[in-house]
């Protein structure tokens, strides 16, 4: 179920669910905000018979307003939704050619509403007019693509916010995978009981890491390219700057610092957001993908293909 | 904006059809289960009126307007079904009496009393048919008399007065499409350098009621010069020798003399300042920071101490009211049949040529060709 926020800002999804389970005649209404909420010209409309106060946004006024059905779609297609509003009092008051007092019809004819944000909230009312106790769920968010002046009505043709994603991307990119690592599953290298943990040293960069093994065997140098195709996942800890960041490992080997000391070195497929801090940033190495749909901390796009496969 | 009022005409006859209507979206399953979504809670009423006769001649004066022309003109003035107007249902236009034998008439004249959670109280103007459900009233016909637990309240913005707002108002958790009474604060606001009577109340900026009390004697208190209390006899006693008070309250001199309090080198001395006159004390020049957690707040340099009484609990319930009301309606159709069924008649002679005559009907017993009745239906207040 969509997340429902009550008038005091708390999550009321569970309470709403039990309300819906307890009645065969729920009271559902739509609240519309056309425009940015802080804009005094923003339109606060509702299809309820009386004014509705939803405390997070304010007062919504009864209006002759209708909308087309909201589709539930998966993918990158933007949803189109038409909202039809027949202005009543706001069109009847004395009007001038000034923007602040112009009729909605005048404004629409001048494309005043184009690109305005649109938010539709679905309101769950335990009693008629009570928008605060259970509150509302976001039903649709988008922008006004164009506003058509009809006979005794304005038709706001809106597109959902996802339209900003409609751009060319490499064909293999099917989802955002640069989220932080979120899996507890790890695979140690053959012969080790636990995944090796390294501490970064100079001269590490975003794509080239020099580090010393801390465990399971201090300063162990692993075979060349043993970790190729595996993952480097940074750990949290005092002073750590890259906790959760991760990258696939292209190559690994050893590096001599000029003083006869050997260290582990890694070349990464994709750069880290910034170079690690020597002595403070630590990481482990594993062949298990650092993202997993089943982990609660995963905030990526949870559909095909599985994120662990995508990376 | 005042709306025109539907004319009251003598030809209105039986039967009158009055119909409440709701709108419910119904989803039903193959198993017979249903989910129903009510679209509104205030009914849309419809009246089907029959006018047995409408005179179209002059009554006593050639300057009056005939019934037919009154109604026909009224219909035209509203552009058919376009404009809203007010209708007095002859059998359903009154709520009350507010009191029966001096007691609040509940539930038939009762108005709800609800709070917005911030110390403000509202009573929606509603009527009930059966004492169960309530319907919002959008338009009053004349004055409203409101009672707080049997006591007549007055209009205004002062303490326990009401102001009429709407139609249409929402507060957290409630909304109404009709008129609403907004109750004033439960007490007056704080005033500077003002003598407050004992037990007088004010409402502080946070919406809490504060009760005026006089500072009382307290055991073993260390008191400075000028410190004042009100003694058990209602006299103001002032410290004229600073010190520490004793463990038990002394017997105060209330004749303008002094009273020793405590003992030894730390003994304090009170001097009688005369009767407090039933006052708790005088407030300071600047509003104090009130204790809103059930505690006390000293005010000024004298004996005035405020005691927090918590949020204003609202006007005394139950609230009852008596008033006449209109239904806000429109004509249901853009066209209306008026049917003439008899010839010229007049109590003042013939009307001037070309200015009407005879008897007309809308769906009455003499009707032969006219279609239907005059239909009115509820009009909501003007939308945004």
Describe the structure.
The complex is a heterodimer of chains A (311) and B (384). Chain A is 8% helix and 34% strand. Chain A is mostly beta strands. In chain A, strands 1, 2, 3, 4, 5, 6, 7, 8, 9 and 10 form a ten-stranded mixed beta sheet that branches. Chain A has a six-stranded antiparallel barrel with strand order 11-12-15-14-13-16. Chain A has two domains: 4-165, no CATH class; 197-287. Chain A contains four helices and 16 strands. Chain A has helices at residues 13-22, 89-92, 104-109, 307-310, and strands at 4-5, 27-34, 43-46, 52-54, 58-62, 64-67, 80-86, 117-125, 135-150, 153-160, 197-201, 208-215, 231-234, 246-256, 262-268, 282-286. In chain A, 29% of the residues are buried. Chain B is mainly β. Chain B has three domains: 12-81 and 332-378, no CATH class; 94-186 and 314-325, no CATH class; 195-311, no CATH class. Chain B contains one helix and 36 strands. In chain B, the strands form ten sheets. In chain B, strands 1, 4, 5, 6, 9, 14, 15, 33, 34, 35 and 36 form an eleven-stranded antiparallel beta sheet that branches. In chain B, strands 20-22-23-32-31 form a five-stranded mixed beta sheet, with no helix packed on it. A four-stranded antiparallel beta sheet of chain B has the order 10-11-19-16, with no helix packed on it. In chain B, strand 28 and strand 29 form a beta hairpin. The radius of gyration of chain B is 34 Å and the shape is elongated. The model of chain B has no long low-confidence stretch (mean pLDDT 92). Classes of the chains: A mainly beta (311), B mainly beta (384). The interface between A and B is medium-sized, with 33 and 26 residues.
């Amino acid at each position: 179920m969509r997340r429902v926020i009550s008038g005091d800002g708390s999550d009321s999804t569970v309470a709403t669910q039990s309300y819906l389970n307890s009645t065969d005649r729920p009271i559902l209404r739509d609240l519309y905000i056309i425009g940015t909420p802080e804009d005094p010209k923003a339109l606060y409309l509702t299809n309820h018979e009386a004014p509705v106060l939803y405390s997070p946004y304010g007062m919504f006024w009864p209006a002759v307003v209708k909308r087309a059905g909201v589709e539930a779609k998966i993918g990158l297609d933007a949803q189109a939704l038409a909202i039809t509003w027949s202005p009543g009092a706001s069109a009847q008051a004395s009007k001038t050619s000034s923007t602040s007092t112009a009729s909605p019809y005048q404004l629409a004819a001048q494309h005043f509403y184009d690109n305005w944000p649109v938010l539709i909230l679905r309101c769950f009312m335990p009693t008629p007019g009570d928008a605060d106790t259970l509150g509302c769920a976001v039903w649709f968010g988008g922008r006004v693509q164009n506003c058509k002046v009809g006979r005794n009505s304005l038709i706001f043709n809106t597109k959902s916010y996802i339209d900003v994603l409609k751009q060319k991307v490499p064909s293999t990119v099917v989802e955002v995978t640069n989220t932080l690592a979120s899996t507890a599953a790890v695979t140690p290298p053959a012969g080790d009981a636990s995944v090796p943990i390294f501490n970064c040293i100079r001269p590490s960069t975003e794509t080239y890491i020099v580090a010393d093994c801390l465990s399971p065997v201090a300063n162990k140098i692993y075979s060349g390219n043993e970790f190729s195709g595996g993952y480097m996942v940074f750990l949290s800890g005092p002073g750590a700057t890259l906790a959760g960041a991760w990258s696939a490992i292209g190559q690994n080997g050893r590096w001599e610092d000029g003083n006869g000391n050997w260290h582990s070195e890694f070349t990464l497929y994709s750069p880290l957001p910034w170079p690690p801090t020597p002595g403070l940033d630590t990481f482990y190495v594993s062949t298990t993908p650092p993202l997993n749909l089943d982990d609660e901390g995963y905030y990526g796009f949870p559909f095909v293909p599985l994120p662990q496969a995508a990376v | 904006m005042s709306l025109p009022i539907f004319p009251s005409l003598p030809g209105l006859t039986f039967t009158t059809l009055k119909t409440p209507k709701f709108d419910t979206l119904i989803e039903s399953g193959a198993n017979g289960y249903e989910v129903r979504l009510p679209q509104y809670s205030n009914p849309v009423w419809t009246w089907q009126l029959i006018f047995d006769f409408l005179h179209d001649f002059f009554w006593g004066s050639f300057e009056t307007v005939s019934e037919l022309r009154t109604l026909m003109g009224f219909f035209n003035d509203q552009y058919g079904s376009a404009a809203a107007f007010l209708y007095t249902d002859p059998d359903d236009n009154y709520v009350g009496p507010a009191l029966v034998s001096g007691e609040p008439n509940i539930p038939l004249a009762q108005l709800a009393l609800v709070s917005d959670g911030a110390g403000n109280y509202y009573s929606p103007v509603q009527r009930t048919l059966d004492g169960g459900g309530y319907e919002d009233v959008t338009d009053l016909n004349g004055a409203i008399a409101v009672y707080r637990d049997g006591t007549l309240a007055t209009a205004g913005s002062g303490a326990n007065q009401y102001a009429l707002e709407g139609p249409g108002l929402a507060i957290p958790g409630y909304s109404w499409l009709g008129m609403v009474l907004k109750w004033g604060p439960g007490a007056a606001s704080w005033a500077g350098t003002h003598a407050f009577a004992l037990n007088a109340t004010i409402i502080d900026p946070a919406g809490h009621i504060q009760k005026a009390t006089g500072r009382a004697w307290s055991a073993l208190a260390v008191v400075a010069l000028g410190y004042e209390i009100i003694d058990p006899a209602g006299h103001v006693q002032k410290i004229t020798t600073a010190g520490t008070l004793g463990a038990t309250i002394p017997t105060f001199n209330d004749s303008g003399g002094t009273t020793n309090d405590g003992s030894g080198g730390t003994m304090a001395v009170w001097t009688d300042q005369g009767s407090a006159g039933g006052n708790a004390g005088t407030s300071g020049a600047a509003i104090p920071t009130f204790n809103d957690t059930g505690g006390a707040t000293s005010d000024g340099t004298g004996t005035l101490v405020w005691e927090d009484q918590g949020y204003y609990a609202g006007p005394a319930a139950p609230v009852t009211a008596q008033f006449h009301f209109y239904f806000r309606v429109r004509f249901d159709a853009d066209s209306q049949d008026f049917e003439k069924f008899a010839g010229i008649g007049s109590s003042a002679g013939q009307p001037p040529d070309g200015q009407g005559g005879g008897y007309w009907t809308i769906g009455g017993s003499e009707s032969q060709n006219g279609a239907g009745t005059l239909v009115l239906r509820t009009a909501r207040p003007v939308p945004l």
